[in-house]
TrEMBL record:
It comes from Papaver nudicaule. Pfam families: Rep_fac-A_C. The lineage of its organism: Eukaryota, Viridiplantae, Streptophyta, Embryophyta, Tracheophyta. Residues 9-120 form the Replication factor A C-terminal domain. This is Replication factor A C-terminal domain-containing protein. Signal peptide: none annotated.
Amino acid sequence: MESEKPLSLFCTVVAMDTTDYCYLVCSRCEKTLPNEYSSCKYCDPKFFNPGSSNSKRLYRILVSIASSEEVFVVVLFDRVARVLIGCSADEFFNFTMVNPSAAVTAGKLLEGKMFQMKLSKPKVNGNAQHLRAISVTPLCSDFSPAMKTLKELYRDGVSPLHQSQPSSSTHGNP
Ligand SMILES: [Zn+2]
């Protein structure tokens, strides 16, 4: 009987691996593609509009989390990762193309944030090696996804990592 209950726990994000956070899939059937120039083996090319992309990106983010007992790595796939990032993997990818430091900044924004996560164990014979987060609920009521903050931080086209002291905080409040 397959009745392994998902593990539910409260945890804090310790670190997020933003070097390799997404993978390419066919935009129609969502099977993995080796690169963006390859076409899907399973879909007829005539289903794709000429000139439009036949691939898209989905999240697969490794996140180190700390529970009350230990620190370990979980993997967040697309549906769950969107809760943290706040947009599609394609949109996030394009944003980091324009703002190369944004991926690292996104990781920093989420560090220390608390969540309730439901985790499922990797299948015994599969090649999955990490627990998989199947749901993520932010515990702080004013949580905002990374992308929302990133858009504010990078609004002026200036990387926040290169900005000096914010100048508006001491003056001008009515
Ligand atoms: Zn396909």
